[in-house]
Amino acid sequence: MLRPEVIESYYHAYRATGNEIYRDWAWDAFVALNTTCRAKNGFSAITDINAYGRGNSMKHQESFLFAEVLNAWALLCDREDILSE
């Protein structure tokens, strides 16, 4: 599943500490998601992350991907705090 908890945790840790490492980790996760879970028309969870070729696509996109995951990424990229005020 494309769960939001990790990215949201990075966001809260960054806001609490100001440590840029959390933004770096979030970017790494974004690149990994785009590489691993990208589907023809969006993103899909995969069946087995340990399988060669990353397993099979689950053929659906969770609604919280946009509502929570991409929102947290947007807030992490918000250097001027425009979105988070």
Could you explain the architecture of this structure?
There is one protein chain. 51% of the residues lie in helices and 5% in strands. The protein contains three helices and two strands. The model has no long low-confidence stretch (mean pLDDT 79). The protein has 85 residues and is mainly alpha-helical.
Number of strands: 2
Q: Helix tally?
A: 3
Mean pLDDT: 79
Compute the CA-based radius of gyration.
Answer: 14 Å
Strand and helix order:
HHEEH
The CA-CA distance between the termini, in Å, is 30 Å
Pick out the low-confidence regions. none
The biggest sheet, with number of strands, parallel, antiparallel or mixed sense and barrel status, is: 2 strands, antiparallel
Strand order of the largest sheet: 1-2
The fraction of residues in strands falls at under 5%
- Identify the overall geometry: elongated
Helix content: 40-55%
| Alpha-beta content class | mainly alpha
